[in-house]
Amino acid sequence: MLLPWKTASQTMVARLSGYNESPYSAFFSFNPTLNRIVHQHMTCADFACLPESKLNYFIGSFVRNPYDRVYSGFRQLQEDIRTQPSYSYAAEWIRTLVMKQLDENHRQLQAADFDFDKWLASVTEDQIYEIGYNTNFPLHPGHYWTHINQTQFANFIGRVEHFEKDFSDFCSKVGIVTEARNANVVDLEGAASENPFSYRYINRMDKKSIEKINSLFFRDFELFGYDRLPC
């Protein structure tokens, strides 16, 4: 199971812990195969370079509508700034790099007065599309965890909006049974809208933010069938 940011990944980690065969750290660590720092939110392209990708795993991934993902990522950035400085790191140079990334994220939020719309207006395309520059920026397109070079890589794609049903379908396909444990469920807050996908945070962003999300994540809307809202 690949774990895109802000797609109930911690709940899946908790539920699938008994089947976890990963030899890699979930937190920031240097991967000698990829020659860069990675963590549990490894993309399809990264996974395909690892020896484990040749073991014929049935690969699953969950997606989430871009509006809620972006707003949830905005909150996650602030949470990471508060908590990650106190964590333990595999090496001091890794900690130093992560602190630089956190500082960059904090300065961008601070310049926007921690206002979502102002912050999103300052987010640039390279922050969204370039995954290697800042390993602490949680808002890369969802299809990075489902597709490689325009071709679907994941065998199963579930939706956060239908999480319990889709997670149950995944477990049935791979023949496992899990306990119904949850983690980091704060993202379930918010009022579901009238949209068929129940966009939860759409009332917390202005029309310019909606327009920018429509543009930055156009490929996710196309691939996963989420409705673009008019702006």
TrEMBL record:
InterPro entries per the UniProt record, alphabetical: Sulfotransferase (IPR005331)
Organism superkingdom: Bacteria
Name the record gives this protein: Sulfotransferase family protein
Organism: Phyllobacterium ifriqiyense
